[in-house]
């Protein structure tokens, strides 16, 4: 059972018509501006545990949302019913809500001249088999293979297979109306290993636009088993200040703090340690971050953002200097700056890197902590203070010695950014941020 692109195109065309109708209704109701959007997704998700099917879920999600503006007052409402009567009632409700909201001079649409009037087809939709038989077979094959790999694998938190296809449509009273199809498929497995009456848990996953780009169930299973077994015999370490490596699969969390710190909401609330740092050197000169929203088939590609603004390639960091903030139209007006096309998130960040792989980074580090898991949310974006639970491996003389857990790593993001030593070439392709492992000069590791 594979969804057909033609069917999705027809459904998207119907939604586009509903968006046009809603915008026309808003104009007739006296709104000075309006915007309307709908994201729809349908698919299947299967969960297994201990080699048995635990859940099978079919989803069909999507609601049409309308926002109207009148004298800088905003009202929003949504509906899953796309009949003319329901759309009219939804627009009327949004207009009624606008009557009771406070005026905000920064409310409104993104500038008309920034709309994506001509945008590329980024080939983001590759429908996959969504039959229960296929989905169940993928999840079971993954988990059963994992459970058969080693007698120390004694339990499982399950495997998951998901396949979803849909589309996104956005229109506003500037006359912009756009939409594109998209898909996402994923497979994951979580296993538990036991040794000497102690247990460890780890996982692996694969995600892609195309099912053919997913790792085979056996590969996902073997990676989950390898990572879980490697954590057996974990110890604590003595508290010390040492170099730290964030392995590539957790580096996305590290870069996520940069995203938050340079996003408009944090900036206009004056809740970011990078406020008024545009143009400043915040990383070493070797670091560049390039954003490319138009990678064909990219996991974080998008021809336009959530406000219809044309996305474009840009430098986020160049030679260590901060080149841009990430601003929606509201944030841009609050900060008296230009909209950047980041309503809804970032698009395919490419982190510059050197020639060293993870093993070479460990040799460069000498003695320190290789972080493979982060826990908790102990990050203060106002001043940059950083403190999170972590697990990973202790490294001495450039070689991994033993697994480590129940430690806390602490520092300040300003220092962590400025004192970055290297980025490896072991890029994890599963994230919106394409980054290798990150070597930092020093952090406090709190253990025993």
From TrEMBL:
* Listed Gene3D superfamilies: PmbA/TldD superfamily (3.30.2290.10)
The record's annotation in SUPFAM superfamilies points to: Putative modulator of DNA gyrase, PmbA/TldD
Residues of the Metalloprotease TldD/E central domain: 127-232
Q: For this UniProt entry, which residues form the secretion signal?
A: none
**Which keywords fit this entry according to its UniProt record?**
Hydrolase, Metalloprotease, Protease
The record's InterPro entries line, in alphabetical order, gives:
Metalloprtase-TldD/E_C, Metalloprtase-TldD/E_cen_dom, Metalloprtase-TldD/E_N, PmbA, TldD/PmbA_N, TldD/PmbA_sf
Domain spans labelled Metalloprotease TldD/E N-terminal: 34-98
Cite the GO molecular-function annotations of the record: metallopeptidase activity
Metalloprotease TldD/E C-terminal domain ranges (all copies): 240-447
What are its GO cellular component terms? cytosol
| Record bears the keyword Hydrolase | yes
The alphabetized list of GO BP terms reads: proteolysis
Q: Into which family does the record put it?
A: Belongs to the peptidase U62 family.
By what name is this protein known?
A: Metalloprotease PmbA
Q: What is the source species?
A: Idiomarina tyrosinivorans
Q: What is the lineage of its organism?
A: Bacteria, Pseudomonadati, Pseudomonadota, Gammaproteobacteria, Alteromonadales
